[in-house]
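> forwarded from #structure-qc
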């Protein structure tokens, strides 16, 4: 059996030994004699097929004749291609202690064998790892799981690989001492939020359905919101949203205005 990648040339090699002069030799495919022209080249009994495709699959027979008779030998040609690998997860963010799946799609013209590696270490099925249908599941993700994972797929025509980088972390952690904030009207109110995050975050403040932007009355700095010259219309529930690569968290502060203020 001869496996050849489609688009390449196939070389069907035959060695002939004879005690007398060879009077004839030729190649056949099914009942058709193969010419020494076009995509076929015959030289010194060997057959070259240029730019093979799936239509070239099949059994090729070489016949050789001398004064004592005819002998033949068969070679089966099978064309195909290396596996084709795709993923939407070249960079995958996973929350710590979560279950995450490294997803790879494989297209192959023949049976493949696959393996996952992280660095120089091959990954096998275990309590924490499961390889199923070319996907790798990692359970209870830890910081030590960070790294570049490589999936190798091999078939009769060669080997291909694809890489996925796994980065672990957690959603932002938000805290405040101001779940309820009383401010005297006319003063400035500072809504204070402390943020802890394993990666870069983006943050925004909202009151009801309205997002708050920096302006003459509002300043957002280092996750804190300053409201100047507070009015009765500023009463309400303010929500701060923090988003990083691992998800979004929010925290609420209720602002009440009046003639005196108390911080709780």
């Amino acid at each position: 059996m001869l496996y050849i990648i489609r688009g390449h040339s196939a070389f069907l090699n035959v060695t002939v030994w004879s005690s007398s002069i060879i009077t004839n030799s030729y190649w056949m495919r099914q009942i058709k004699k193969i010419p020494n022209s076009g995509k076929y080249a015959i030289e010194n009994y060997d057959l070259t097929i240029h730019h093979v495709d799936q239509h070239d699959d099949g059994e090729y027979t070489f016949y050789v004749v001398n004064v004592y008779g005819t002998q033949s030998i068969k070679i089966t040609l099978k064309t195909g291609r290396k596996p084709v690998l795709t993923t939407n997860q070249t960079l995958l963010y996973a929350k710590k202690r979560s279950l995450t799946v490294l997803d790879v799609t494989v297209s192959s013209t023949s049976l493949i064998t696959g393996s996952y590696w992280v660095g120089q270490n091959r990954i096998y099925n275990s309590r924490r790892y499961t390889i199923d249908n070319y996907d790798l599941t990692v359970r209870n993700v830890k910081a030590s799981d960070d790294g570049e994972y490589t999936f190798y797929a091999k078939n009769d025509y060669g080997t291909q690989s694809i890489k996925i980088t796994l980065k672990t972390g957690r959603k932002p952690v938000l805290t405040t001492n101001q779940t309820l904030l009383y401010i005297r009207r006319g003063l400035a109110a500072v809504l204070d939020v402390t943020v802890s995050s394993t990666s870069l975050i983006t943050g925004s403040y909202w009151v009801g359905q309205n997002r708050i932007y920096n302006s003459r009355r509002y300043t957002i700095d280092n996750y804190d919101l300053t409201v100047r010259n507070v009015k009765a219309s500023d009463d309400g529930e303010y929500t701060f949203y923090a988003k990083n690569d691992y998800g979004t968290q929010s925290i609420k502060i209720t602002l009440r205005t009046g003639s005196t203020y108390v911080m709780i």
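QC bot note: The chain has a mean pLDDT of 94. The chain has no helices and 28 strands.
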